[in-house]
Amino acid sequence: MxxxxxxxxxxxxxxxxxxxxxxxxxxxxxxxLMGRTMHGDRISKxxxxxxxxxxxxxxxxxxxxxxxxxxxxxxxxxxxWSSIATTRTVPDFRPATLYTLRPDWSAGGTLGSGxxxxxxPKVPEAANYPYAYLEQEVDQQQGGIVKRGFKTGFTFEAFxxxxxGFIQALPTEMTGIAQDTEEWEVFNALLTGVTTAEQLDGxxxxxxxxxxxxxxxxxxxxxxxxxxxIELGEREINGRKxxxxxxxxxxxxxxxxxxxxxxxxxxxxxxxxxDGSFTFTINGYNPLSGIEVIESEFITGTNWFLIxxxxxxxxxxxxxxxxxxxxxxxxxxxxxxxxxxxxxxxSPFEGSFDNDTADFRLRMFSKGQLWTRQLxxxxxxxxxx
Length: 385
What we know:
Blueprint: H1 24-38, H2 42-54, H3 57-72, E1 85-90, E2 99-104, E3 131-136, E4 146-155, H4 156-162, H5 165-193, E5 203-207, E6 210-214, H6 222-234, E7 236-237, E8 240-241, E9 248-253, H7 257-265, E10 292-296, E11 304-308, E12 318-323, E13 330-334, E14 357-370, E15 377-379
Parallel strand pairs: 1-12, 9-10
Antiparallel strand pairs: 2-3, 4-14, 5-6, 7-8, 9-11, 11-15, 12-14, 13-14
């Protein structure tokens, strides 16, 4: 996933709402001073410290930091969840629900010879239209979107000593935690959502006159992956065969990618038969070359998962749910500073009234959701049912 582009960098096309005291001109001036300070300009550093502790520049600095946070957030860095999951915005905290249209063509419509039940029926003249009913999926994971977040604090003395460097690094550090959170949400939904019904059953793989047999829960091999695709092709959802047209992702534990890539590309070697005697040559064609291999720290032991790439199946498989209007993390600053004698606001970077500390807070709303377990084949790698 690449960074999202914006036309209006001040409000990020409406995603960021400036608070009182923040204007485009002031934010631009604050950003310029921040940049010069980070490049060692002592005059700019002094001007910025003076502005922060005596004017509303602090609010414009916080706005610039939030702009950086939102711009950096869509970039996945080393996270892999977007390869196997799509995103969906939800309106509230109630459990998300997936509905399916269930046709009932028993009255008012007719299907021609050989026409499947999932096509729209013919409607005779003056006949009533038949119904297709909305039916809630019964195998969905329950639970609504979750609010997550944390605070980090610093003292007035630390701020003065560090100048603007802490603020410059803060959005990047907080973005990293937020990205790790979303990565975990998706993989946790996968790992806690699959059941033994989706495990590799094992069975024959025909190659012309030759046949190989794959054990249940087999370790990763070319045969095991081919058998997984065969088993997926034999499954049905609502009476329809599973079709994945855009490729697969193979999820494996960390540290195994080099070996698994070798297995996928070793098209002229043994295919993992138990006696090791069979060698299959495909004359340069590798049917497994389109599989994307992803390591994850959340997958352990000898487990592996074969899952469609994001947006490559008729039904949603894995999704990351986000709250509408709060799709990206929100960064706030809090000082509880009180007011100056005689009136006037005190900058949060002057520290709180009680102990000269200030806090930044990140808030985000997300949840991983596994919708369609039947589109996943997984194995614990033991070779035992």
